[in-house]
Design a protein that fits this description.
heterodimer; A: 310 residues; alpha+beta; SH3 type barrels; Rieske Iron-sulfur Protein; six-stranded mixed sheet; four-stranded antiparallel sheet; elongated; B: 370 residues; mainly alpha; Cytochrome Bc1 Complex, Chain C; two-stranded antiparallel sheet; 1% strand
Chain lengths: 310, 370
């Protein structure tokens, strides 16, 4: 046990006083010294090493009284009280109070039963308030997240722009977007068009017409396998950046995405880089006068299969 | 209260006011508890980063609130109001640039702070909870960077968000929901801006204040770890209080950081690109520099295809995060000396070197794209 305040202190030969203070070691959190009040002849600081035994109200020292008296007087200014300093966990290690310090327990609290019941009731009330809010709050936050798909045809330009076969040409167009409460606004977008040679067409369609399905699974448009114009969504299927038609040192003219360096050929097939699937083909129709129309679609990037989100 | 001065000793009004407050809240005791924290082994320059981070956060909050006097978080006004701050408001360019560079300083100092704690072995028992809360704070700092980046609504902002949200979309099961939740729709637009804005100026600051408070509380419960070398006697001989020596070092650190951020704001003020559109023109999208290493490693062949991309953008960073979280629980060896923890030292060097390598190679790659 730790030496108690007010304990009598006895030396090898006689009793010399009582414990007036204890000094704690800030690192080990143990009592390192006792301060002994010497019955009117000042205070001495005695290391715990000099203590032989500690009992309830008595501390027995190994040293003689003359040895203790010859120690230098205790210097109060070299120390601070526990209240004035922050030493984590130290207070939990002190068991030297001369007695408990008490305050009265209120009359009304003495015989209250079902304390646990009331404690649990607070949780129940919390749930009663919180749970009904979960669904409305989630719906509140989710309102704009799932917009219906839009299958309008957009005019994006004239095929007269396509001068060379198997060469990517960017068509910029504007799409009207109505978002929530905002006024309808124009958004600039772009698609890449190719006037394809039969070899490229074969690579893209592999001898089959390409069907585009709506959200309900019905066919909304079919790109004919022999129609020589291809439109690719301007969004890179790797992580959604915008790619360009560029000259590559080894691969020649390619579609290159500057973000993560995915490279595609004129048919949209991946030649190099991290892209998980070819460029996304869009529904396209060309009028007799050469006006190009597309359905503006966007697909989720980064997946092997296409998931349409716009 | 025993430390209340007796009425007769008061001379000035200031002393009277102080005594009045002290009598009611125990100011002196509070100040003593705050300042007289024993630092085992004494103050060090290595310990300054925590205080510096708190300082940077306060400055971000102050400059952020000032920017909100003019900034409007709508798709049709965000860009114009940011340009207005930069070009028309007195010192607007400086406050905005300070806020911008402050985020970089935050990331640098978080890295320094985490490295110090890691190398000193200060995450070990009994400080595991401080480390965990610290990791959560680190995630919040990255969240601040990501959400704040969209707010100017220029091309840089738009494309960093587009790619960032596509990456979040790759999280298994929850990804699609989270990505739509952040975007508030299928593509970035007004809803995205509103959401990022409220997350940036309300949700994250509230979370950061709460967690930083918890971080400090836990730190005070466990106390400073002190150096990883030295016997108890040596440590005790060198021990001093938080005030004045450590606070002095912290304050010098804050002043240096303040000077660096101001200098960057002055010499490299924020310049906006064109207003955000889904058509980037000639702009090559790129995230802020502290995300460049993730951006660059996603270019690697080994992270190609759907699965490779999941590995590179979700599994790999996620595993690193989980490892950091579990670190204090599987590293139970009480040895804190970094020179006696070869795996820890090698791990830190490899991680730091690869972050540097990927960042530098991303910067070198830029020149090949033009």
């Amino acid at each position: 046990m730790q030496p108690q305040l007010k304990s009598k202190v006895r030396c090898a030969d006689r009793e010399i006083g009582e414990v007036s203070k204890v000094i704690m070691d800030p690192l080990s959190h143990e009592v390192s010294h006792l301060v002994v009040s010497m019955n009117g002849t000042g205070e001495r600081q005695v290391p715990m090493g000099a203590v032989q035994t500690v009992a309830d109200d008595l501390v027995q020292l190994r040293s003689s009284s003359s040895e203790v008296l010859s120690l230098p007087p205790f210097k109060r200014d070299d120390y601070v009280t526990l209240h004035e300093v922050e030493i984590p966990g130290l207070e939990r290690h002190i068991h030297v109070t001369p007695g408990e310090v008490l305050v009265p327990f209120p009359e009304l609290e003495r015989n209250v039963k079902r304390r646990t019941f009331f404690a649990k009731l607070t949780y129940v009330m919390g749930l009663f308030i919180g749970l009904p809010l979960v669904f409305p709050v989630m719906k509140f936050l989710m309102k704009p997240m799932y917009a219906p798909l839009d299958n309008r045809w957009l005019k994006i330009g004239n095929i007269g722009k396509l001068k060379f076969a198997d060469t990517g040409t960017q068509f910029q167009y504007r799409r009207m977007v109505k978002e929530a409460y905002l006024a309808e606004a124009e958004v600039e977008k772009n698609a890449w068009l190719i006037k394809a040679t039969p070899a490229v067409l074969e690579k893209v369609y592999q001898g089959k017409d390409m069907e585009f399905l709506g959200a309900d699974g019905k066919v909304i448009w079919t790109n004919k396998k022999d129609m020589p114009y291809l439109a690719f969504s301007g969004k890179c299927p790797h992580l959604g950046c915008a790619y360009k038609w560029r000259k590559h040192k080894v691969l020649g003219q390619v579609f290159l995405c500057p973000c993560h360096l995915s490279i595609y050929d004129a048919s949209g097939q991946v030649l190099d880089g991290p892209a998980p699937r070819p460029l996304d083909l869009l529904p396209i129709q060309v009028s007799a006068s050469g006006e190009v129309q597309i359905i503006d679609m966007e697909f989720k990037a980064g997946t092997k299969s296409q998931t349409r989100i716009v | 209260m025993s430390d209340t001065p007796s009425a007769g000793t008061q001379t000035t009004v200031a002393e009277k006011v102080f005594a009045f407050v002290d009598e009611r809240v125990g100011l002196k005791l509070l100040a003593a508890k705050m300042l007289n924290e024993a630092v085992p082994g004494g103050s060090r320059w290595a310990y300054v980063f925590g205080s510096i981070l708190l300082f940077i956060f306060i400055m971000q909050a102050v400059t952020g609130v000032l920017l909100m006097f003019y900034y409007v978080p709508t798709a049709d006004h965000a860009y114009a109001s940011t340009q207005y701050i930069i070009h028309d408001i007195d010192y607007g360019w400086f406050l905005l640039s300070y806020h911008f560079w402050g985020s970089s300083a935050m990331v640098v100092c978080v890295f320094a702070h985490m490295s110090q704690v890691f190398l000193w072995g200060a995450y070990k028992k009994p400080r595991e909870l401080i480390w965990l809360v610290g990791l959560a704070l680190f995630a919040l700092v990255l969240g601040f960077g990501f959400t704040g980046y969209l707010l100017p609504w220029d091309q840089r902002a738009y494309w960093a968000t587009t790619v960032g949200v596509e990456i979040i979309d790759k999280i298994p099961v929850l990804g699609d929901f989270l990505a739509r939740f952040l975007k508030g729709g299928p593509i970035p637009g007004q809803m995205t801006l509103s959401r990022f804005f409220v997350i940036h100026v309300m949700v994250l600051p509230a979370a950061l204040i709460g967690l930083a408070g918890l971080h400090l509380f836990l730190f005070r419960c466990a106390g400073p770890a002190g150096p990883f070398r030295g016997t108890p006697t040596e440590l005790k001989a060198k021990t001093d209080y938080f005030f004045p020596r450590q606070i002095w070092k912290d304050v010098v650190g804050m002043a240096v950081v303040f000077a660096c951020i101001s200098a960057m704001a002055f010499w490299e003020p924020v310049v906006l690109l064109d207003e955000a559109t889904p058509d980037p023109g000639d702009y090559h999208p790129e995230p802020e520099w502290y995300f460049l290493f993730i951006f660059q490693h996603l270019r690697l062949k080994m992270f190609s295809g759907q699965f490779g991309q999941f590995l590179g953008s979700i599994a790999f960073p996620g595993a690193l995060g989980v490892m950091l979280m579990l670190l204090p629980f599987f590293d139970r060896n009480p040895e804190r000396n970094i020179f006696k923890r070869p795996f820890a030292l090698i791990g830190w060097v490899v991680l730091t070197a690869s972050i540097l390598l990927f960042t530098v190679s991303a910067i070198i790659n830029r020149s090949f794209l033009d």
